[in-house]
Amino acid sequence: MSQVLDADPSPAAASAMPEAERREVDLMRLVVARDRGAFDVLYRLYYRRLGRFLDRLTRRPDLIEEVLNDTMFAVWTRAATFNHASRVSTWIFAIAYRQALKRVQRGDRPVASHPDDETPDQLDSPETRLMQRQSSALLRTAIDRLPFEQRMVVELTYFHGCGYPEIAVIMDCPTDTVKTRMFHARRKLRLMLEQRG
Predict the structure, then answer these.
(1) Which residues contact 46 (CB under 8 A, 6 or more apart)?
(2) Which entry of 2, 30, 65, 193 is 20 to 30 Å from 134 by CA?
């Protein structure tokens, strides 16, 4: 990821990209040209997504803003190193992952995680909503108990929509390692939920 390549995606590849992805590539091109307005748009586009990811990754609300800002500073200063080998989101999440990992490995101790913000539910029954909140809290607690690397694979897959190859880039490991971590995470989650259910 640190190699500088000036190659933009081919016209055929660019036309096959979803619109949002094309927009991010265009924003990165402008950021490389030091366009502060484009960077501001990119920052706002990723602020909440990275915030949620970093919250689950670090379990340290006091670190989120700092790591997020360090991540986006790295995006600004190293924008020219984006080589189109992955999606912009994969590149940015990889930077955030590494920034947070540095903090965690320095000995920062995670604190107990707080429950996710509740999202409005379309179901009418208060009992159904209560059961869903309880199930969600139970699942969140189980995910939080997973080992760090397994938890990150689950988070990136289910909460950020990343595929295994993207996760491999973000976590800087082989795709088969990602698959193995997911296999073990699912098995542990099933056992934890069966014990509580």
Answers:
(1) 72, 89, 92
(2) 65
